[in-house]
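quick q for whoever's on today - can somebody do inverse folding on this one?? i tried earlier but teh output was garbage lol. C-alpha cells:
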C-alpha cells in the first residue's frame, strides 16, 4: 500500500558528501542528476516541463510550491498547444522544496503536484533547508546528487555507490533524448520557419504561430539539406539541455545556414550553438542562471530588461574576437554574454528566454527582430531580382 504524503522518509545526497534529510512526495524512486536551483516564485508547471531541465534535480528556492495545483494537459490554446505546459510531460529528474502544498486552490487545478509527479515517476523531497542547499551550490558549484524516496533511503552506502557510478551530467547527450524524432508541422500559413529542436519549449512555437508563420519542428541532427527542403524563410535553433559541445551536428548545420544568409535566431542553447558555429567557445557557469528575475542590458540601446533564464553554460566573450559575432546583451549580475548579433549576416541570438513561460514577457520583441530580419532579406532578394532584370 502506498504510504500517505509526508510520511515517507527521503534523502538528498550531494557528491561532496552533504546530506539532507526530508520527507518524500511524488513517486517512490531513486534518481541521480545534476542539482540546480531556480529562484522563480511561480511557474512550476512550465519549469518542470521545460526540456532544458532534462537530467537535473531541481530545487525551487521559493518556500511553498504546488499551492495552485496542476492544470489539465488537455487544456489547449488557440493553436492547439498545451496551454500551461512547455512539453508533453515532466522533464526534471527530481524535485527539492522546502514545503509542497497538499491542498492546492485554483480554478484550473485538476490534481496536486505530488499526484502529477507520482503519475510520471518523478520523486520529490520536502522539508529541506533550501537556503542551506542553495548556499552550498553557490559556494561549491553545481554538482551531481542522488535523491531517494524509495528503498535506498536506509542504505546510504548504496546511495553513495550509485552516485559514484552514475554518468556525469556533462557527458550525456540529453538533446538526443528530448528532441523530436521526425519533422512536425504546426500551422498552415504560407510563411514558414524551421525550428531545430534541441529541447524546444512550446512557447517558442506559440510566438511564431502568433506572428503568422507556420513552424516546421525538426530533429536536432537535421542536416542543412534536410532543413532547406522546407524552403524556410528563417531558422530558429532552440533551447535544450546538456553541454553544447555535444551538439556537433547542430553546430555544423547552423554554420551552413549562416554561410547561406538564412536568417537565424538562437535561443538559450541555440545561442551557444550559433557561437560555436562561428568559432567561439563555451564554458560552464559555476551555478548557472535559472529564474524569472535575471537582469540583462542591451548594449545597443542601453536599456535594461528583466528576463526568464535557464542555462548552465555561456559563450566565452574572449573567443568572440575571432568571429564576426558581437555581444548584444550582457548579464547585469556577472556580465556574462546574454545575446549575440552577427556583423554581416542576418543572425541574432539570446541566452535568455524571450518567450518566457514562466516569467516576464518584456523581451518578446526578439521574435519581432527575427521577423524583421526575414522581411529585410526578402526585400533585398526582390531588389536584386529587379536590378538583374534591368541589366
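ok took a stab at it. sequence:
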Amino acid at each position: 500500500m502506498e504510504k500517505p504524503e509526508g510520511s515517507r522518509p527521503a534523502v538528498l545526497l550531494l557528491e561532496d558528501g552533504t546530506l539532507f534529510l526530508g520527507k518524500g512526495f511524488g513517486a517512490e524512486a531513486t534518481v541521480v542528476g545534476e542539482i540546480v536551483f531556480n529562484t522563480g516564485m511561480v511557474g512550476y508547471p512550465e519549469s518542470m516541463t521545460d526540456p532544458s531541465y532534462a537530467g537535473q534535480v531541481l530545487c525551487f528556492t521559493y518556500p511553498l510550491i504546488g499551492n495552485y495545483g496542476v492544470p489539465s494537459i488537455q487544456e489547449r490554446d488557440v493553436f492547439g498547444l498545451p496551454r500551461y505546459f512547455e512539453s508533453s510531460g515532466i522533464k526534471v529528474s527530481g524535485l527539492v522544496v522546502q514545503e509542497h502544498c497538499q491542498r492546492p486552490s485554483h480554478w484550473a487545478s485538476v490534481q496536486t503536484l505530488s499526484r502529477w509527479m507520482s503519475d510520471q515517476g518523478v520523486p520529490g523531497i520536502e522539508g529541506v533547508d533550501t537556503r542551506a542547499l542553495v548556499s552550498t551550490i553557490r559556494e561549491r558549484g553545481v554538482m551531481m546528487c542522488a535523491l531517494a524516496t524509495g528503498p535506498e533511503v536506509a542504505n546510504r552506502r548504496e546511495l553513495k555507490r550509485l552516485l559514484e557510478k552514475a554518468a556525469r551530467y556533462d557527458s550525456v547527450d540529453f538533446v538526443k533524448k528530448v528532441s523530436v524524432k521526425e519533422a512536425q508541422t504546426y500551422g498552415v500559413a504560407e510563411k514558414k520557419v524551421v525550428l531545430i529542436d534541441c529541447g524546444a519549449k512550446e512557447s517558442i512555437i506559440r510566438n511564431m504561430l502568433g506572428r503568422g508563420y507556420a513552424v516546421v519542428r525538426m530533429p536536432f541532427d537535421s542536416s542543412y539539406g534536410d532543413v532547406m527542403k522546407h524552403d524556410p524563410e528563417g531558422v530558429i535553433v532552440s533551447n535544450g539541455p546538456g553541454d553544447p559541445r555535444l551538439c556537433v551536428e547542430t553546430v555544423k548545420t547552423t554554420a551552413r545556414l549562416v554561410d547561406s544568409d538564412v536568417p537565424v535566431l538562437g535561443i538559450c542553447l541555440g545561442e551557444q550553438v550559433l557561437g560555436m558555429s562561428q568559432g567561439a567557445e563555451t564554458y560552464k557557469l559555476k551555478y548557472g542562471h535559472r529564474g524569472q528575475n535575471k537582469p540583462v542590458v542591451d548594449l545597443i540601446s542601453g536599456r535594461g530588461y528583466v528576463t526568464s533564464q535557464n542555462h548552465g553554460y555561456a559563450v566565452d566573450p574572449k573567443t568572440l574576437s575571432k568571429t564576426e559575432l558581437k555581444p548584444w546583451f550582457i548579464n547585469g549580475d556577472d556580465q556574462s554574454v546574454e545575446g549575440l548579433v552577427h556583423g554581416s549576416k542576418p543572425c541574432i541570438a539570446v541566452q535568455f528566454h524571450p518567450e518566457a513561460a514562466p516569467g516576464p514577457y518584456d523581451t518578446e520583441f526578439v521574435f519581432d527582430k527575427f521577423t524583421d530580419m526575414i522581411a529585410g532579406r526578402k526585400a533585398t532578394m526582390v531588389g536584386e531580382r529587379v536590378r538583374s532584370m534591368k541589366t
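fwiw The mean pLDDT is 95. also The CA atoms of residues 97 and 126 lie 5 Å apart. so keep that in mind when u check it
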